[in-house]
Design brief:
By secondary structure, the chain is an alpha/beta fold. It has a 6-stranded mixed β-sheet, with helices on both faces. Strands 3-5 form a two-stranded parallel sheet. The chain is globular.
Length: 252
């Protein structure tokens, strides 16, 4: 029986905000961008990433994923005007897509390495949930869009940051709109290495090449077992968080 699964050619150029490049070793580089420059978070970018993560997960030709951004920031700007937020129906769609975003990211069953090229203040949980995080010394982490605007950080931020930072630091980070610089992020265990900007992607690809040389099932199932706890937390808590985010937003 023939299996229906995407090949790289099926989705390589499908996405407006995601550049995909794969080498002979099976290392897939995923670069978020807006017209070739640093990614501006929009409703389209939000949805594209969710669907792209599914394509990546279903393609057995991908051995390691390197997740990075274009320009000087990973993602530090959001276009609120691109989102429809005025009704329960609008939020129903956001809740659906919001769950897909992180669940499909965690559904990738090969190691994911983040090469965080600069500030990540909009959806920073996406690179932080990678298995290995290499950060530029220009990196800053913050959860800019949510609590500062009276919105519950319920789309996964509440799960990610209390998991990565621990409960006390995670709550403080989200409720005070704290900004972590690269060195503080390293001390807190958010990132694994901090390097000058020009060294970040080469270092991530160096690690990716080391992993890609391992037996495929060993690498794949290491990712599976090492992410079970965070996947459990996302599955249990994200829908409730998004629902409370919607309620708070509709009350503004």
């Amino acid at each position: 029986m023939a299996l229906i699964a995407p090949s790289f050619d099926d989705y390589a150029t499908r996405y407006e905000n995601i550049r995909l490049e794969r080498d002979e070793a099976g290392i897939l580089q995923v670069t978020g961008h807006t017209e070739g420059k640093s990614l501006i978070w929009t409703a389209r970018a939000h949805d594209e990433l969710a669907y792209c993560f599914t394509d990546i997960a279903c393609d057995a030709g991908n051995k390691v994923v390197v997740l990075t951004g274009a320009g000087d920031s990973f993602c530090s700007e959001i276009d609120f005007s691109s989102f429809s937020l005025g009704s329960a129906a609008d939020w129903s769609q956001i809740i659906f897509e919001g769950q897909r975003l992180l669940q499909n990211l965690m559904g990738i069953e090969v190691p994911v390495i983040a090469a965080i090229n600069g500030p990540a203040t909009v959806h920073p949980e996406i690179p932080v949930l990678s298995d290995i995080t290499i950060a530029s010394n220009t990196v800053k982490f913050a959860d800019a869009p949510h609590f500062a605007n009276g919105i519950v950080p319920g789309d996964g931020a509440h799960v990610c940051w209390t998991h990565v930072l621990g409960p006390q630091r995670g709550r403080y980070f989200l409720l005070t709109q704290q900004t972590l610089d690269a060195e503080q992020a390293l001390r807190y265990g958010v990132v694994n290495e901090v390097l000058p900007p020009e060294q970040v992607l080469p270092r991530a690809r160096e690690i990716a090449a080391h992993i890609a040389a391992k037996p495929p099932l060993g690498a794949r199932y290491s990712r599976v077992v090492l992410t079970r706890e965070i996947k459990r937390l996302i599955h249990e808590q994200q829908a409730l968080g998004l629902t409370h985010e919607a309620l708070a937003a509709l009350s503004l």
